[in-house]
Amino acid sequence: MKKRPAPEQNERPEQTTGGGADLPSLEEVEALLPGEVRSILHNLQVHQMELEMQNEELRYTQQVLSDSREKYSRLFESAPVGYCNLDKDGIVKECNQTLARMLGHPKEKIIRFPFASFVLAEDTPILNHMLHQPTTETEYQIRLLDPQRRCTHALVRMHRFKSDRDGERRSMAALTDISRLNEMATQLKTQGLAIENIQEAVCIADNGSRILFVNRAFEEVTGLGREGVLGRRSDQLLFEQEPEELRSDVWRKLQESGRWRGKIRQQRADGRDFPAQLSISTINDDRGYPQYYVAVFTDITHEEMNREHLNRLAFFDSLTGLPNRQLFFDRLQQEIARARRERERERDTFGLLYMDLDRFKNINDTLGHSVGDELLVKTGERLRALLRENDTVARMGGDEFIVLLPHMLTHRDATRIAGKILRAMERPFELAGASYHIGTSIGFSRYPHDGLDSDTLVKHADIAMYRAKANGSNGFHALNDSLTERIHDRVELEHDLRQAFAQQALYLVYQPQIELATGRCCGAEALLRWEHPHRGMIPTPEFIGIAEENGQIIDIGYWVLRKTAEQFQAWAHAGSAPDIVWANLSPRQFLHRDLVHQIRQILDATGMPPERLGIEVTENAAMPNLDYSIEPLKGLRAMGIRVSIDDFGAGFSSFGHLRHLPLDGLKIDRQFIARLPGEANDSAITSAIIAMAQALKLTLVAEGVETVQQMDFLRARGCDIVQGFYLAKPLDPRHLATYFKELESTPPPGPVPDRPNP
Ligand code: C2E
Ligand code: CA
Ligand code: CA
Questions:
Q1: Which of the ligands is closest to the CA of residue 553?
Q2: φ and ψ at residue 593, rounded to 5 degrees
Q3: In angstroms, what is the span from residue 88 Cα to ligand 1's centroid?
Q4: Greater pLDDT, 710 or 362
Q5: Which ligand 1 atom is at minimum distance from the Cα of 618?
């Protein structure tokens, strides 16, 4: 509508008042007019006023109209919804700015164009369908395309009506952009699917703990159907099996940090329960108040089982099923802690029994490892059967077992238990179809008397066990104070021995051997000596034992051989060398892989003829395992070296094995000689060994000959060679040379005066 020019308000006063002096006023003119005219004029004036009033009203209405039109237009243009009017052919007659934005075109590129041109081709059938629907209202989703061919999802609500003006059918469409909504819906759907199909059981509850949702895994894991669960209280369901303290802990943690994680036991519908790892998170609303709780849990039965299995592997011996070393030390530690807590320092509170099988190595080596294993298993069974619930029996490794006796009251208790074990172990073991006596040695230590920490206690029990063994098989030994001191000594001694060896402070003495038939000094045995700077002479078996334990014996052993060879060469040059010089080989050295090669090198380097060197090995080293011993023995003999079995009769003699060993001689053990000739058994054994050696064509040496009676007995039985204090103590090289020469010149089968042991 075009605005008619309204009479300006300020025009009228100007016309009426601003006339000037030359124009008469209205009143003046009126007064000049006849009454008729004046009345007409008056009416006119009244009309004019009415008109002006009407005009005023009109202007007001126009203003209101224009205001609301503007308001409407602004609303129309900026509505969140796109609007357009379409004619019957679907041509856009009018549209708002929102739609223009949705379509990505300015309005002028939209109006007069078919609406279908802005719709994704696939969706135009929908549009056509809407345009030709007889119903007045339809609503569909269609996709719009912008010039960059980006797609907008729109919900189109179409209103069809007949135009008042021309009666034509038109349509008015309102389009809502639902791209975001669609996106969110898809996202929600995927998330929902993910939660539904996730492996973990999920349970979502509102802030009143009422369950709103559970997923499929929840149903599977718990065996509870969704319908039965929704609406129930999640805390009651999840923590049904748990004590009140845990529930309140969960609440406290949720309030503090919004999260909780832990292990629970969860019951299934069928009554079986299982361990579950549960985590709960709080979802807060916009104001920060808890709105939902999301609980996620998994059945960890398998993990627990695995852990248990690993536990068993880590803490139990796989062969015997007994606790292993580690678990034993754990328990020992606990026991010490308990005793300390209870301040039981004054009296013995608990004890350790360390035990080892006397013949295990023998069984293992001769009958094979599987039989050895069987023996260990059976030992474990016997021990377990003997001891009480809270005694710990553990396998320390090899054939060593240890028993922790908690709440042991007296020394006598321990002795009683050790006695029980010894008796149980005395019964023969059925192994591989035969029965064997094994024998056990047990050492005992107690807290706090023998040590305040686990290492010391175990070490002392171990040492006591060695004492028991040294005292003869199948025995029990408790540590005493002097022995405790000796342990400290031993540690010190080990250190000193290393130093002594490095500083060449070890030396050799040589004990002559006499051939009974001729009275000649036919040989000498090299024996190692160590004079400690403060302690004086250390008994040879004591420091050899240390060297064997720490492996030093290998180096020491080669040094002995080299020294012996050098000494032989020196004697040989002086014309005072016995036929053969014998050196002792420790079992460990005997099994050293390089042995034969090293000895050859020593002989090459010194020039000692191999047939002048003799090697003594104990039968324990040479016999139990022929597989290992035959090779080095053969190697040595192939070179021409003599090999003799030392201490024959003292170890696990197996006469059968003797046949298979490449040997030159036997040296009968001192213990049989000591009680000759009075002791009947020893005499019989000695005679038998001599006879056997003759039959096997082995040279027999008797050592430890201290009396003339012993020598006579041996000579009468046909023993070949004797060695002992009766003839000579071990001598230093110079004295040995003198001794040799004396006998060469005057062969007297008889005693020589004692010489000082160098
Ligand atoms: P073994 O090989 O049996 O040596 C004989 C031991 O008997 C020597 O003790 C010797 O001094 C001692 N003996 C000799 N005659 C008599 C006697 O008439 N009466 C008594 N009661 N004893 C006698 P030693 O020298 O103390 O050696 C002890 C053990 O130490 C040796 O026993 C041997 O097994 C070992 N040993 C000594 N030297 C070496 C060595 O260089 N290497 C290795 N591996 N072991 C050695
Ligand atoms: Ca020897
Ligand atoms: Ca010997």
A1: 1
A2: -60, -30
A3: 128
A4: 710
A5: 34
The response to whether residue 614 sits with its C-beta less than 6 Å from ligand 1 reads: no
Eight-state DSSP code of residue 167: -
Q: CA-CA distance, 87 to 93, in Å (whole number)?
A: 7
Q: Specify the residue for token string 């009017």.
A: 85
Question: Which residues, including other chains, have CB under 8 Å from residue 224's CB and lie 6 or more apart?
Answer: 214, 218, 268, 269
Candidate from 27-36, 210-219, 695-704, 749-758 with smallest mean pLDDT: 749-758
Q: Is 472 left (phi over 0), alpha (psi -120 to 50) or beta?
A: left
pLDDT in tens, 35-92: 888 888 888 889 999 999 999 999 999 999 999 889 988 888 888 899 999 998 899 9
AA identity, residue 643? V
C-alpha–C-alpha distance, residues 239 and 260, integer Å: 13
**CA 99 to chain centroid:** 65
- From ligand 1's centre to the CA of 317, what distance in Å? 40
Q: Looking up tokens 């005395």, which residue turns up?
A: 426
Q: Rounded mean pLDDT of 329-341?
A: 88
pTM of structure: 0.46
Pocket of ligand 1 contains residue 687 by CB under 6 Å: no
For 700, the token pair is 């027999």
Q: Do 713 and 691 touch, CB atoms closer than 8 A?
A: no
Q: By C-alpha distance, which of 452, 294, 324 is closest to 400?
A: 324
How many residues are recorded in the chain? 758
How big is the chain by its Cα radius of gyration, in Å? Answer: 57
Q: Which two three-digit tokens encode residue 529?
A: 């000596």
Atom of ligand 1 nearest to the CA of 540: 26
Q: Which two tokens stand for residue 419?
A: 């006695």
Q: In 300-374, where do the E strands start and end?
A: 350-357
Average pLDDT, whole number, for the chain? 86
In the block, residue with structure tokens 């038939």: 517
Q: Which single residue is written with the structure tokens 């396998």?
A: 395
Structure tokens at 13: 């006063």
Pairing assessment for the beta strands 521-532 and 580-585 based on DSSP bridges: parallel
Cα–ligand 2 centroid distance for 644 (angstroms): 9
Which amino acid makes up residue 435? S
Report d(CA 149, CA 739) in Å as an integer. Answer: 120
3-state DSSP call for residue 168? Answer: coil
Show Cβ contacts of residue 97 under 8 Å, excluding neighbours closer than 6 positions: 77, 78, 107
Nearest CA to ligand 1 atom 45: 584
CA distance 697 to 700: 9
Q: What is the pLDDT of residues 345-372, one digit of tens each?
A: 555 578 899 999 988 888 888 888 899 9
CA–centroid distance, residue 527 to ligand 1 (Å): 6
Q: What is the number of the ligand closest to the CA of 667?
A: 3
